[in-house]
Amino acid sequence: MRAVQITRFGGPEVMDVVDLPDPVPGDGEQLFDVSMAGVNFADTHHCLS
Question: Which of 9, 10, 33, 36 could form a disulfide with 14 if both were Cys (CB 3.0 to 4.6 A apart)?
Answer without folding.
Answer: 10
